[in-house]
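User: My advisor asked me to double-check a structure prediction for Selenoprotein S before group meeting. I don't want to rely on an old file, so could you generate it fresh from this sequence?
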Amino acid sequence: MDDDVVIEDVDDANIPQRIPLKNQDLGQLGFTAEFLSLYGWYLLAAAFTLILLIQQLKKRRSAQQEAVPHTLLDASLVTKRQEAMEAARQRMQEELDAKAAIFKEKQRQLEEEKRRQKIEEWESMTQGRSSKGHKLSEGSEEAGSSTTVPKPKTDRKPLRSNDYNPLMGQGGSCTFRPGRRGPSAGG
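Assistant: Sure, here is a fresh prediction for Selenoprotein S from the sequence you gave:
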């Protein structure tokens, strides 16, 4: 075999040559590490806040989109709801009217009772009886025309004894005693 034969690849010209990297000294990595060590917590908090803000905006947007179809319901549901509300209002009005009629009837009965009592009292007065139905003596009729009966005095114990007078100064053991004159330390 001949050693003179050299086998060359046909596509040697198309193989890209290795280009040396520009930042082989890791200087850019050091700058990035220093920036993260100074502002890393701030960046983390800002990213967290941004994520929460995006989630809240998505929730609000979806709630608004859900609210729009509910407000644009078909006419049959709206009319049913309005009819139900009108029926409820009508029932409450009927209950209120019934209660008012009952109250008015009670008031009328009370007025009728008062009027009847006044008529009875007037008739008893014209016949010479008191409002309690007792016959008045002729002397008491001449003495006064009032129909009030004096209340009998009840025998109650007084709250304080008759000799108690707070303005007289004999209030017991709580009397004012002025302090001694002179220095308090005595020295």
